[in-house]
Each structure stands twice: as C-alpha cells, then as structure tokens.
Write a structure and sequence with these properties.
By secondary structure, the chain is α/β, with parallel strands linked by helices. It folds into 3 domains: 30 residues; 130 residues, Response regulator (Rossmann fold); 143 residues, Response regulator (Rossmann fold), CATH 3.40.50.2300. Helix content is 45%, strand content 17%. Strands 2-1-3-4-5-11 form a 6-stranded parallel β-sheet, sandwiched between helices. The longest helix has 27 residues. The relative contact order is 0.11.
Length: 343
C-alpha cells in the first residue's frame, strides 16, 4: 500500500523539479531559442572562412590590431575566422599558413614577422587558389602576385615624419647647428616596421651631419629587450640628447630607465624622446610632456581588410597598397584624441 502512495508522490516531485528547471533556464538565457539564433547569425555554409596568422602579442599596439581584425571578421559579419598567434616566430607563421591551405580556407590574412622567407609558402597559397592579404607589415618577394593586397602603414613615411619633426624642433630651440647625440631602439630586425622607420629617418638625418647617431640596437619591439638595451646604452653613453624608440612599449621602459638615473625627458627635459605607435598611455605622456612626439601607426586595420574581401567576393578589383590614416602627435594636438583612443 505504501508503494502505491509513494510512486505518485515521486512523480509529482519530478514534474515540479522539471518545471522549475525550465523556468529558471528560460529566465537566465540558458536555453536558447534556435529560431532566433538562425535569424541573427548566418548559416555555416554562407560564412567566408579566413585564416589569420598574427605575428604575436608583443605590444599594446599588437593587441589592438588583433582585436580590430577579429571584430571585423566576426561571425556576425559573415565570417568564420581561424586565428593563430605565431609568437614572434616565422616558422610558426609558415606552419599556420600551410595549415590554412590544407583546410582550404577562402582567404589568408597575415602580418609577417619579417620581410624575407615567405616566398615558397605564398606560392603554395596561390597554387591552391587562396588569395592572401598582408596586414600591417609587408613581404620582400620578386613576384608581387603572391599576395592580392596589403593593408597597413607606410613605415618609411613614419620614419620621415620623425626626422622632419626633429628638424623643426631643433630649429625652434635654436639647436639646429649643435651636435645632437642620438640613440635608436629599433624593432625586430628585418621586419618592415624596423626597415621602413629606419630608412625614413636616415633619409632625413643624412642631410644633417651634426646629428650623431651613437648607436642603433635591436630591441625587438618588446619592453623586456628594450630595458636590457637601454640600460647598456646609458652605461656606455653619458651625453645622449635624443632617444628614438620605434614603438611605445620600448619607449616606456626607456623613459623609466632614464628616470632611474635622474635623467629628465620630454619638453622640459634633458633628453628628447621620439616614439611610434601612439597608444593611449603614450599619448598621455605626450600630453604630460614626458614624450616629445609620437608618430601614429594605426592598428585599426580590420575594417580595411573586410572591405577588400567583400570587393573580391563581388569580383571587383582592389588596390595593391591600402594605407591607413595616421597623425603626428605633439602636446599641441594630442588632447583631442585622448578621450577617443581605444588602445
């Protein structure tokens, strides 16, 4: 008799638990509405598959660049993105690109670690009929049909901008005839950013024999290497007038290293500081007068890449070179960009 009473009671309890679970799940969003999802996102067979090989995560600039491309090539925008971080190693990038080719992606987007060494793998992509778009940096190849387009900065022009700014600044200070002792923290050797910025600055500096470049060192665009190299430079040279640092992350540790030795920097300081990238923290230092000038290298390149892919999908021709908009920031013009700077 007790069993007959117990079974209905257990069944009622189970029904109550199921009902409560469903109600809680619906309110919390745990149970999704399949029809709603289908309407809000494109089906898999309509997505454009893109393999993305990012060279690393060495700086705040690179993080912003990664977020830009991932946001632009999102599922909501009609893409299925396969992302790979090369961690500053060319071999990792080549492996990733070959993996993309084997997966038969629709497009390959990558930011090359260095300019040389990609010819063979790019030929493999072309033979597989997969268009390649270069982002940020460029490659050195004899046959430029190995890639369809490049989106990024004119690195040489950035170096020229730095040289022109220094010309004008020294003239304002009445120091244009003085000997100016310069040290340069360079980015990863062989990268298009390092090559372009170095070439551009040297193009201007060769017109000024009084600009004495004491040393140029490879600091790899990282704060760890820059801290090591800047420490060596400060031990070796006691009369540095200017530090040129080819990205903001290296600039931060260079300024800190000088401060630790009671060397002042910036507008009212002993050492002129020229930086590149223009991330928010660096622009704040420009506004405070700690950094004299920051040459912008715009990381927000994802939408440019997406526009190129859409044109190719529509059978339209695209420009080989696609430069992003950039500004030279000094204390006079930096304030208007501080609040809107997302990186």
């Amino acid at each position: 008799m007790r069993r007959h009473v117990l079974y209905p009671m257990m069944a009622a309890i189970i029904v109550l638990i199921l009902c409560a679970t469903i109600i809680i799940g619906e309110r919390s969003g745990f149970f999704l509405n399949p029809a709603k999802d289908t309407e809000s996102e494109p089906s898999d067979d309509k997505l454009i598959v893109v393999g993305i090989s990012q060279l690393g995560s060495e700086s705040v600039w690179r993080t912003a660049n990664t977020e830009s491309i991932q946001n632009a090539l999102s599922r909501e925008n009609g893409y299925f993105a396969i992302f790979s971080n090369a961690r500053q190693k060319q071999d990792n990038q080549i492996k990733a690109i070959r993996s993309f080719i084997s997966q038969r992606v629709d497009y390959i987007v990558f930011s090359p670690c260095t300019e040389d060494g990609f010819e063979n793998v790019l030929a493999e992509a072309r033979d597989a009929g997969i268009p390649v778009i270069l982002m940020d940096r460029t490659v050195n190849v004899e046959d430029d049909s190995l890639y369809v387009a490049h989106v990024g900065s004119d690195m040489k022009q950035e170096g020229i901008k730095a040289g022109i700014w220094l010309e004008q600044e020294l003239w304002k200070r009445g120091r244009n005839e003085e000997d100016i002792n310069i040290v340069i923290l360079k980015g990863t050797e062989g990268s298009s950013a390092e090559i372009g910025r170095s070439e551009g600055f040297h193009e201007i500096s060769k017109n000024h024999p009084n600009w004495k470049i004491l040393a140029e060192v490879d600091a790899d665009f990282t704060n760890t290497k820059a801290k090591e190299e800047m420490g060596k430079l400060l031990r070796e040279f006691s009369d540095i007038d200017e530090v040129i640092s080819q990205n903001d992350d290296m600039t931060f540790v260079a300024v800190a290293a000088m401060r630790s030795r009671c060397i002042t920097t910036g507008i009212d300081g002993q050492v002129i500081v020229v930086s590149f990238d223009a991330c928010h923290e660096a622009l704040t230092m420009v506004y405070n007068g700690t950094i004299n000038v920051d040459i912008e290298c715009n990381p927000m390149q994802g939408e440019y890449v997406s526009q190129i892919i859409k044109k190719l999908e529509n059978g339209e021709s695209v420009e080989k070179e696609n430069s992003v908009d950039e500004v030279v920031f000094t204390k006079e013009n930096v304030l208007e960009s501080l609040d809107s700077r997302a990186y």
